[in-house]
Amino acid sequence: MLKDKVHFSNMSGKLKFLRAINTDTTTNPFCMKQKTNKKSICSFCYSWYMLETFRKNCVDAFASNSILLSTTCLKSNNNIPFIIDAYLRINGHGELINTLHLHNIVNIALFNPHCNIAVWTKRKDLINKYFKENDKPKNLILVFSNPKINHIKKDIPKHFDKVFNNVEENSFIDEQNCTGQECYKCLQCYKFEGENIIVEKVKEDEKYQKHNLKEAI
Questions:
Q1: CA 210 to CA 205: how far, in whole Å?
Q2: Domain residues for 88?
Q3: CA torsion angle for 123, 40, 19, 192 (degrees, to 10)?
Q4: Taking the mean position of all CA atoms in its chain, how far away is CA 184?
Q5: What pLDDT sits at residue 2?
Q6: Are strands 197-201 and 162-167 parallel, antiparallel or unpaired?
Q7: What is the pLDDT, as a whole number, of residue 24?
Q8: Edge-first strand listing for the sheet containing 140-149
Q9: Where are the alpha helices (DSSP H) in 27-123?
Q10: Does the residue 2 lie in any domain?
């Protein structure tokens, strides 16, 4: 395991050409709890399925990130990574673990002011607690990942910049502004300007959609 440095992932699919700092979904207490909530998009967790099947080889690196970022305060003269990218994703896999994890992401953003760093999270509790006492870096974009399916949230929570919503394929068709796009061609989630309410249809891959979608609505 890469215990002393942050591991970066080259993403694929709609996220191709983007890199991310991911953590281990399968050992995150928040994710473990939400996975059993059939009212949440987390019950369809693509990350959990991938890490248990064809992305098993990623688990060690993601788990190493989980441990490092949630237990060690990164310092600029030691283990805060320099990012060459213009855009970076946090939580392509995984979720915020604790306030130290968030603090380390803030430090990474401060150390790399040239890079827009977009964080997907459902953890309003951690965000509110941390930014009540700390300033948000100008290059840090907070995307609230709405856990409710077919309930488009248009009010952006405090400290957040955007909201990411999931809907059924045949619901809110006119409002689906993410479905079918590749992120590098759009970048709406990675820039402060532009659309702040993002709507995508729930992924259809039956391999990881193990529950009846109707139960989540």
A1: 10
A2: 9-211
A3: -60
A4: 16
A5: 52
A6: parallel
A7: 95
A8: 9-10, 19-21, 87-90, 116-121, 140-149, 162-167, 197-201
A9: 29-34, 46-52, 59-71, 99-111
A10: no
Cβ-contact 7, 20 below 8 angstroms: no
Identify any residues that bridge with 116 across adjacent strands, giving them in sequence order.
87
φ, ψ dihedrals at 197, nearest 5°: -110, 105
Report residues of the chain scoring pLDDT below 70: 1-3, 203-217
Inside any domain, residue 47: yes
Q: What pLDDT does 179 receive? A: 87
Contacts of 144 (CB under 8 A, 6+ apart): 121, 122, 124, 153, 156, 157, 160, 162, 163, 164
Question: Which amino acid type is present at position 121?
Answer: T
Tokens of 121: 């999270």
In the chain, the number of structural domains is: 1
Please choose, from the candidates 7, 26, 185, 1, the residue with its C-alpha nearest in 3D space to the C-alpha of residue 108: 7
131 CB neighbour count, 10 Å cutoff: 17
Domain assignment of residue 76, yes or no: yes
Amino acid at 143: V
Backbone angles phi, psi at 146, to 5 degrees: -65, 120
Written as six digits, the tokens of 96 are 């915020």
Residue 33, by phi and psi: left (phi above 0), alpha (psi -120 to 50) or beta? Answer: alpha
Are 40 and 34 within 8 A, CB to CB?
A: yes
| Closest alpha carbon to 115 in 80, 159, 74 | 80
The reported pLDDT for the residue numbered 205 is 52
Q: Which residue has the tokens 């690196």?
A: 61
Roughly how many angstroms between the first and final C-alpha of the chain, as a whole number?
Answer: 39
Q: What is the pairing mode between strands 9-10 and 19-21? A: antiparallel
